[in-house]
User: Fold this.
Amino acid sequence: MRTMNLKPKALLLAGAVALAAPVSLSAQTQEGYDSEYMTTVYGSLPADLSDLPEGPEIEGFISARKGSMMQVTSAGGTQTVVMVSPGTEIKSSGGFLGLSRASLDKDSLLNGLPVTVKTVQWGDGYIASQVRLKSKDLKTAAMIRNGTEQGFAEQTAATEALRGRVADIDNYNIKGVTNVYFDTGKYNLSGNAQTELCGAAQQASAMDNALLLVVGYTDSTGSYEINQELSEKRAERVVNYLQQQCGWKPYRMLTPTGMAESDPAADNSTDWGKQQNRRVAVNILVSKAVDGM
Assistant:
């Protein structure tokens, strides 16, 4: 199958051997594609991509899947369709939230998953030569699609409705913030921090439709690379404790993140300020669309 990109409103798949008639791709209710997209399928995708000219690198999230086609939407809203061939390498990085497989198959490319895609040119379109993703994002996307291991049998109808709607809502009301603090260069939780985390989970459990967003930070000591990794480890430790010790359900957790020394809570020029910045913020959020339901 060969792809020729004819602007965002249409896709034409072309090759040497004509096989099929036009096929309409449905909206997100099925595979995620807008109904404007049309395809004509010809031939088969090459497995050996080594001789094809290099295409652009695309960073964004997977906004649609249909067979071997994958639509990636960038931060600016640009939509690019690439093909996933037998020669596409799909890799994850990091063991965040317990997942550490290095190589994955195309079934792991789930809607909503942030990815970085290296491409090669094929006709007037692109084939993904490599798709890179983070294990933490794959874990979250898989839980949203499949439910937790226990399933969603315990959810109320309102929570199930929330699960279907929250992915498209960016605006939340902040109902509470709990900060827990860390020693320099450390990511282990103090006894006081453990108590406060379970208190935050208990507070959120009393709210209808509440979600938790965990964000890790550092002070200004050290390089960006070290601080980014440290902030992610702090967020990871908090997420694990909330889920394993405080009973917070994974499907009520927004994707956690590390922000290094960004957004300082206090002045990094003082010891007290640095102490305030070595933190993880646990935000209790409720989507504005369902707040008060």
